[in-house]
Amino acid sequence: MEPVTIRLCGPLELRVGERRLEAELPSRQGRMAFAYLALHRDRETSRDELIDALWPEPSNSQALLTALLSRLRHALPPGMLHGRARLSLELGEAPWVDVEAAAAAPAAAERSLARGDPATALRTASATLEILRHPLLPGVERDWLDAPRRELDEAAAALLELEGRAALALGDGLRAEAAARRLVDREPYRESGHALLIECHAARGEISKALNAYDALRTRLREELGTVPGPRLRALGERLLREEVDPHPLPRPATPLVGRDADVARVVERLKDPATRILTLLGPGGVGKTRLALEAAERVAASFRDGVRVAWLDPVAEPAYVQATLARAVGGEAGQDPAHLLSDARLLLVADNFEHVIEAAPGLAAIAEGCPGVTVLVTSRERLRLRAERLFHVEPLGADAVTLFAERAQALDADFQVTPAVAGLCAQLDGLPLAIELAAAWTSSYPVEEIARRHRELLGRADAAARDLPPRQRTLHATLEWSLNRLSAAEREAFVAFAVFNGGAPVASAEAVIGGRLEPLVAKSLVRCRGGRAAMLTTLREYAAPAIGDAIRRRHAQWCLELAREHGPGMLSFEAAPEQALERELGNLRAALVWSAMHAPRLHADLCAELRRFWWGSGRADEGLRELDRARPATPAARAALLHGRAVLSPFGSPERRRDAEAAIHAFAALGDRPGEIEATFALIEAELNDGEWERAERLGQRALVLAGDDPLWRGRALSFVTFASGAIARARETIDESVRCLSAAGATVEVAMILSSVAFLAIRDEAYDEAAELLDEALDAARAGGAGAHRIAQIRGNQGLVALFTGRHAAAERAFRDELEHGREGRFRNVLPEGLLGLAGVAAAMGEHLRSARLAGAAEACTTAAIFAVDELVLERVRKRFLVPACAAFGDARWRRAERAGASLSPREAVTEALA
């Protein structure tokens, strides 16, 4: 059903998509019946209840209702009026009903205020008050309207108060006062309305006006109700009488704080802790330290008798002038000692932007030691290194970065719409609030995609930046230079060198490559270290990248080569650890490949040779083939390895796979490299198996077995291929035990699991399901014990699903196929998806869920993009014949084909999501 919109406040309106249907509703009684059902759509309505609502004095009301409902069904879209004896409206997904939106609005606006977002609260309140400007079903007088009308009146009053509070928080005193006066006129005894009006006067410094309003209310309550103001109003009146107007008010930011609710709460908690003397908000430039500090300071101001004082250190040129700035901030003169001025104070002192005057930090220590009632909140890109200091690391925004971008863009263009490109741009900008705000300022000139493409250029220009920003925050480059200008020559050199790492690196490796220590960069928030790994924000990397020299890039590429040599061979074990080790450095590996292809072709070829197994084992065949195509091997060993890489990465069934495998066998043989020759032989065996040439595959397996000699690992691997290439479970039994024995002796536990699973698949093909089940249970235990990757677990669970499906254990089959899809979608391998989807289609067919079965069958077919082994196709065809063909006949061929086409139109991600729903 198209989106449904219903308005009951004011003239009744019914929209379905772009169509207006209220004029189609039959008579005044028909419109009342529709309105009644819409007001009570959260439940079913009996015929008798509807009769009472429409005809208070019934005569032949049952007949009237029957006729009315018939006309109403005819006027409404099919299926909207649901039921016979008990009636309800079926409005599809996410309908909009004005009274429901109005009822939910006060809580939504309250939540926005609570999380420090008064702009959203104001929009919500104002838009809903516009709805409630019109009465509910004007001209209709029925008892059943009394309660909802009272509820909407209460919502309107609450929204007026929220509108005023939000406007006041945004500094719009006139709008806040207008809302407060409307509320007071509407509900003259509502104390919160009077409190809001009094606060509006006080916010403008009109203390006498505020006191007059308080006195007038107090008199009215006493004379008309015989009561006194409540605690909140009394406290407000007492504060006004003392004229506690803060001579040092906190600055009110021009825009709301976005995405920092949790951080604000944590900072507030620490500031309220008596053990906290100096709290430093630490983070890179543009991350939002100052905004966070001011928000937290406002939240805790009431906890300090003397409030909050802010010392702005941005314009302070020398550390020697910091004491004077602090003294002036707390109400003293430039020559006075801040610690002496604050000795009896109870306040929060905010020292903003301390990193460039870090040598003055002992002055803060003196305040902490000599002023027990003072807590110091510092923002800095570098820690102060004081004993009393506690650190709070301010991180870039996560998902809230998109919200921030949208709010800033919508301030320029109310019609701005968030698209997937916004999330991509925010990720490019590391979630840095300053960078996001600067980028959003360009949305009035360029589409988001263009900003993303040119962000380095645009964020270096001040054309679109707000004029009230400090000069160092009008461009991202200016913010970065503020930090970099405070580095020594050696530190700046290390900063540029570290930018060679795309995605970070282990600390020891990074220091070896750059030839220096990272600690100074970490101390200045230019590099972050976590769990032994160092990383730099992308914005910093992009700024430094043009200055990286070839010597550093060569050392980086050489480190990547050593990493690939260390972990690449481990990909043959099917264990997760080698893949994870290389996966962590994927950004570095790709950067090294790009540079070496242009500047060090021999190094590039060697790197490709060592990465071929990673590309194969992690499902990155296309990426690997692209790199191999531009590789220029300088040695016979590199040429042999690259031929092998092309063989294992080429699609099954392609002539290149067989050709390159045969060439690799000869190349490795010429080098006397037996392991290489065996690996290339395995690639050729897979090509033969794909073509259904079982005898050739078995002969090649025997040849690999001879080459392996007595080496238990290679012998076990060769026996695995011999076992599977035997083509039948009866013959596979002859060699599987020896294969398992050899692999176990070599510690290749996951390889044991995979040969057991492969032989189990032969058993499934031969319908030896009991034997297959035993083998698969053993395989799954071994895979988990050995630390198999998700893809390998998926393969085993898929085979278990087939056994369960063919033996009528449908619940077990569904669990197994769901596990296969869950594990399979974690990686880049797509070859497990068709089996998992088809298996669930078979389960659905067996359970009589024909529509689901057809959709999943279509999705499975669409996912099958690569050639698969003939034995795989034989088993999958059995699923189709036993389960899908009968289901198609029962469902109807035409309906099945339509559903199948709908499933085929899904992307792999959408198909898996639907299958697992």
UniProtKB/TrEMBL annotation:
Against SUPFAM superfamilies, the record matches this protein to: C-terminal effector domain of the bipartite response regulators, P-loop containing nucleoside triphosphate hydrolases, TPR-like
Which GO terms of the molecular function aspect are on file?
Answer: DNA binding
Give the matching InterPro entries: BTAD, P-loop_NTPase, Sig_transdc_resp-reg_C-effctor, TPR-like_helical_dom_sf, WH-like_DNA-bd_sf
Q: Which residues form the Bacterial transcriptional activator domain?
A: 97-241
Supply the source organism for this entry. Answer: Solirubrobacter ginsenosidimutans
Q: What is this protein called?
A: Bacterial transcriptional activator domain-containing protein
SMART domains xrefs: BTAD (SM01043)
Share an example GO biological-process annotation for this protein.
regulation of DNA-templated transcription
